[in-house]
Amino acid sequence: MHKVDIKDLIKYSENGPYKDIFYEAGDIKAQVVCLKTGQVIPPCKMGNDVLFFIIQGGGEIIVDGKREELKTGISVIVPKEAEARSISAKTDMVILAVQGKQY
């Protein structure tokens, strides 16, 4: 068992998105990503399926050109087959990101 209080991991950086990997073992990697208003995770391709859960705040995710609004309580699963994904924050955001192991 691995227990974490996410509130203790929330930190922001003026230099760009802040991330804290709090678990990496077996088939999963879990991290908290914090973005200040206006910050962006630039487009990239992931080698793993990723679940994003918006803990607080709001913004937008773009996956292969398709835009979706993000807000507190929303989850999005991006499959490893996606060519590109990016996230931008319209308000300060806290995101739980969990990656499945690449097979």
List keywords for this structure.
globular, mainly beta, 103 residues, Jelly Rolls, 5-stranded antiparallel β-sheet
Structural summary, described in words:
Helices cover 0% and strands 55% of the residues. The protein is mainly beta. It has one domain (6-100): Jelly Rolls (Sandwich). It has a 5-stranded antiparallel sheet, with no helix packed on it. It has a 4-stranded antiparallel sheet with strand order 3-8-5-6, with no helix packed on it. β5 and β6 form a beta hairpin. The chain is globular. The two termini are 24 Å apart.
Write the layout of secondary structure elements.
Blueprint (H helix, E strand, L loop, with lengths): L17 E8 L2 E8 L4 E5 L5 E7 L1 E6 L2 E6 L3 E4 L6 E5 L3 E8 L3
Antiparallel strand pairs: 1-2, 2-9, 3-8, 4-7, 4-9, 5-6, 5-8
